[in-house]
Amino acid sequence: MSAQPRLAARDLSVRFAHNTVLDQLSVDLPDGAVTAIVGPNACGKSTLLRSLARLQKAGTGQVILDGQCIASQNSKSVARRLAILSQSPVAPEGLTIRDLVLRGRTPHQSAWRQHSVEDAAAVAAALAATGLDGMEHRSLDTLSGGQRQRAWIAMALAQDTQLLLLDEPTTFLDLPHQIELLELVRRLNQQTERTVAMVLHDINLAARYCDHIIALRGGHVHSQGNPKDVITETMMQEVFALPCTIIADPNHATPHVIPT
Questions:
Q1: Dihedral sign, CA of 108, 171, 177, 208?
Q2: Which positions ≥6 away from 252 have C-beta within 8 Å?
Q3: Which domain of life is it from (predicted)?
Q4: FRET pair for 67, CA 20 to 30 Å: which of 5, 32, 78, 220?
């Protein structure tokens, strides 16, 4: 039997008013892998990600972090192990890249310990990993969309967790910047063995850059596993109502969806 992953959901249900968004859903995030959560609009993708990070309270069921229910754990302890970048985050006007990235160190600080040598090293490493070193004094207001998204990811990296959750990180980015960002995420995963989960809309990019796919439909898990096993013509029809042909990507041998 395989070991329990560090982060998982068990029989998780979430309701908003009279609407059930997640219905007794169970998923595992494989340790050290990149997972994509995919599905049509309003199927519960972002709700699942927020629930995994304890930003959304579960109705029934639970999220398990390191063998314990996440709801019963200390907030600062959770934040030292798990970072989440929400969709379309907003920063105060005039904030610099360095100021933003330094905010990622908050879980490691206290009234008696602020802006330590460790904080400075973590910020410098996050800036270097995202290609923003030398730009740290620029205001976020002056950055392109791709640069701004890298700055937010640098903040999450400075938090220095082994679990990183990204909610639609490629939203509002053109294709070259989407590729750039996903290359960055993949590189970080390979170099640091971080466990990454992200909500993505582009199935072909999810297949290319992720090790594991979770496909949702109507608050349920339709399928989860290796991209080659999950991204099939049947899944695309049942989840997205999209007739298609699946071919092998000629450059990466990953599944590639061609709508028919």
A1: positive
A2: 208
A3: Bacteria
A4: 220
Phi then psi for residue 61, to 5 deg, are 80, -170
For residue 74, count CB atoms less than 10 angstroms from its CB and return exposed for 0-12, middle for 13-18, buried for 19 or more: exposed
Task: For residue 135, give every residue at least 6 positions away whose Cβ sits within 8 Å of its Cβ, in sequence order, or none.
Answer: 97, 127, 147
CA distance 45 to 176: 24
Pairing between β-strand 195-199 and β-strand 34-38 as defined by DSSP bridges: parallel
CA dist 132 and 134 (Å) reads 6
Strand bridging mode 19-29 / 244-248: unpaired
Question: Is 8 in contact with 28 (CB distance < 8 Å)?
Answer: yes
Q: What is the spatial distance between Cα 35 and Cα 206, in angstroms, rounded to a whole number?
A: 8
> What token pair was written down for 107?
């879980």
Yes or no: say if 198 and 186 are a contact pair by the CB < 8 Å rule: no
pLDDT, tens digit, 9 for 90 and up, residues 184-243: 999 999 999 999 999 999 999 999 999 999 999 999 999 999 999 999 999 999 999 999
The domain segmentation of the chain, as residue ranges, is 1-81+161-226, 93-159
Q: Write down the residue that tokens 């933003």 correspond to.
A: 100
Q: List the chain residues with pLDDT less than 70.
A: 1-2, 111-113
Neighbours of 232 (CB within 10 A): 17
Q: Classify domain 1-81+161-226 at the CATH superfamily level.
A: P-loop containing nucleotide triphosphate hydrolases (3.40.50.300)
* Cβ atoms 225, 213 nearer than 8 A: yes
